[in-house]
Amino acid sequence: MSKSYIEGVSYPTTPDWDTERPFLTGQIYLDIKVTGQRTGSKSSSIDTFKNGDVNRAIGIFTPSVQELLVIDDLLFAMTGIEGMYISMKRGRAKDSGIVFQVDASMDLALQELAKRILPLCENYMVIHSFVESRSHFKHGLVNHAFAATLRTILQDYHAMVAQLEHQFRLGRLSLQGLWFFCQPMMGAIQALTTVVQKASAQNLSGSAILNLLQNQAAAMAGDNAARSLLEKLSQYASAAYLGILERWVYEGVIDDPYGEFFIAEDKTLQKESLTEDCNAKYWQQRYSLKPGIPSFLLNSAETILTTGKYLNVLRECGHSVQVPFSENAKLTNSGSDRRYLECINIAYNFASAELLNLITHKYDLMARLRSMKHYFLLDQGDFLVHFMDTARDELAKKPAAISVEKLQSLLDLALRTSIAATDPFHEDLTCCVERTSLLVQLDTMKKMGNGMSDLNTESESLEGDKSNSDISNQSDSISITGLETFSLDYKVQWPLSLILSKKVLTKYQLIFRLLFHCKHVQRELCGTWQAHQGTRGVKSLGTTISGSYVLCQNMLHFMQSLVHYLTFEVLEPNWHVMCDKLQNTESIDEVMQQHDFFLSKCQKECLLLWPEILQKVEKLKSICLQYAAAIHWLIPSVSVLDSDASKINSSESVVRKEILNKTTNRIRSRHRPLANPVWRSSDEETFKTTLEKFEEEFTEQMKGLIIALSSRSQSEPYLAHLAQGLQGLGNNL
C-alpha cells in the first residue's frame, strides 16, 4: 500500500510498467528533446516528399508544397507528435506546458492559419497528460471516472483526426479546410483544458472536481456546445460519487475507499457511551458532514446524513431493512433533471418511518416515558411513601456510610408492594447516592458544561462570584445525609438510549432530587403539625406554643405551595403538551427534540436553572428542617409534665393522648430521647427565643424569595404563579 493521497486513506500502488514503458501512454514523444533539426526522417502523406531533403527549410518550397507539408505536420501535432516543420518546446519548469512552434521561413499566410490550429494541439497535450496522471489509484473514484470520460472524448477526437488524415491522403483537404473542420471543437476543447488546468493546479479530487465542473458549465452559458459537454462530463464523473451515495441512503453503508464522500464516520464513538457519559456525542458525531459537499447536494446534505444514520440504527438493532430499490430509484445527475432529490426524500421518509415504528412499537417508547414519569417525576408516589418509611434510618446516614445495596432492596420491596408493581419496567429502576448537594451538583455541571449549557445567563450575571461562595458555604454548613443526596437511576438499552441517554437521565435525576427533598421536608413538617395537635390544651406550655402553631402552618403552606407548583403547574402541563406533540412526530430526531425541550423547560420552571432563586428555596427548606428537628426534641417532654391535663374533657383527652403518644413514639424513633424530659420554667424562655429566631429567619428568607420571583416574573411569567401562591407568608408572622 502507498502513502495516502487523501489523509487516512490507503490505496493500491500503481504498477511500475505504467511509467517504465512510456510507449504505452505516448509519454515517449513528450520526453524527446528538441534539438532544432531532425536527425531522422518521418513518413510524409505525400509520396513525392517521402525521400525528400529534410535538412532544408520549408521556405525554399513553393507555397502549395509548403501547405501540404504543414497539413501533414499539423495532423501529427494534433495527436501530440512533433513534425518536421512544427516543433515542440517545453518550459524549464517541471509542470510547464508544451508549446508548438512553426518554422520561421514558412509563408506568412500559412503561418497565420497554422498558428490558429496550434492551440488545439497544445490543449490536447494538456488533456492527454491529465488523463494519464489521474488514472492512478491515489486520485480517487471521481478522478477515475472523470479521466475515463475524457479518454472517451479523446477517442472521438482521434477518430476525427484519422478522418481528416484520410481526406488529406485523398488530396481533398486544404489548410483552410483543416481550419474549418477544427474550428467547431476549439471552444469545447478549450473549456476542457481550463477545467483540467484548474484541477491539476489545485490538486482537486472528489466533490471538488464535481463542483468545478458544475461551476464551469454554468460559466459557459454563451457556448451551448461547451456547456453541454461539461454537463455531460459532470454527469459521468458524478456516477461513481452517486454510487457511494446510493449505498448510504439505501443501505446505511459508507463504501468510500478513497475518502471522497462528504460524510465521515468516527468509529471510536460507540453507542454504549450514550448511557455512560453526559457529554456523549455518538448521535451527533458518529456520522458527520465533512467540508466539500457537492453543490448539487448541498441543500439535501442533512437529509442524506440523517437517512443513513437511521438505517444504521436499524441495522445495529438487528432489524434487517433496505430501502425498496427499483430502476427509477438509481441516482443520476443529468443537467436539470433533479430526480435524485426525489429518490433521496423517498429513502429518508422510509428510513424515518421504519425507525420511528421500531422504537415506538417494538420498544414501546411511550410506556417507557410514562414509567420514567411515575418514578422520577413522582406521578405515582405511593411507592415513595413506603420507601421513605422503610429506608428512613439508612437515609439518615452520611453518604459514604450508606449501603446502596440495602437501599436497592428496600426500593425493590416498595415497588413490589405498591401500584408500581403493575409497571412492566419497574425492574429497570435502580437507586444511587450522590456525594454532593443539589446546589453543588448544579454548579459543578454548569462549570463543566455537562448538559447545562442552557443555564440562564442573566441569573449567572446577577449572582457573580458571591453565589458560588454561597453554595460552598451552605454545603459546608449543612450536614449532608442520604436524604439530600438520594437519587434514582434507570437501565436503558439500545436503541432507547438514543432518547433516554445519560444526559437526559441526569436531567430527570435533578428534578427528582428536588422533588424528593421537598417531599421529605413536607413529611417532617406534617409530623411537626401532628405533634402540635397532641399538645393542644396543655396549659403548662404557655402561650409560646401558639406562635409555633402559626409558624408550622406557614412552613407547611410554603412547602405545599412549592410542591403543588412543581407538580401541577410545571410537570403535568408540560408532560401533556409533550405527549400531544409526540403523537405528530415523523422522525426520531423530532422525538428527541420534543423530549429535550420538555426536560429543559421543566428544569427552568422548576427553578433548577435559576441558582439565585433555588438557593433561597434551599435555605427556606433548611430552616424548616431545623425547626422541625427542634420541635421533635421538645414535644416528647410534654407527655410527662402537665398536672392540669386531668381537667381536660375525658373524651377529648383520650383522643389527644393517643395522638400525642403516636407522635411521640414516631419522633423518638427518629431522634435520640432527651436526657431530662421535664419541662422547666426556664425552658419557656429558651423555647420563645428559639421560636423568634426561626420566625425571623423564615420571614426574611420568604420576603427575599417573593421579591426575587416577582422581579423575574416580568420576563418569566411562570414565576408569577409561585410568587402569588406565597404572597402573605412573609407578613403573617
From TrEMBL:
Record-annotated Gamma tubulin complex component protein N-terminal domain positions: 71-362
Cell location: Cytoplasm, Cytoskeleton, Microtubule organizing center
Keywords: Cytoplasm, Cytoskeleton, Microtubule
Domain Gamma tubulin complex component C-terminal residues, every copy: 365-723
Pfam families xrefs: GCP_C_terminal, GCP_N_terminal
Region Disordered, residue ranges: 453-473
Keyword Cytoplasm: yes
Superkingdom of origin organism: Eukaryota
One cellular component (GO) term of this entry: gamma-tubulin complex
InterPro entries the UniProt entry points to: GCP (IPR007259), GCP_C (IPR040457), GCP_C_sf (IPR042241), GCP_N (IPR041470)
Signal peptide: none
GO molecular function: gamma-tubulin binding; microtubule minus-end binding
Chief location bin: cytoplasm
GO biological process, one term: meiotic cell cycle
Role according to the record: Component of the gamma-tubulin ring complex (gTuRC) which mediates microtubule nucleation.
Family: Belongs to the TUBGCP family.
Name used for this protein in its record: Gamma-tubulin complex component
The organism of origin for this protein: Cupressus duclouxiana
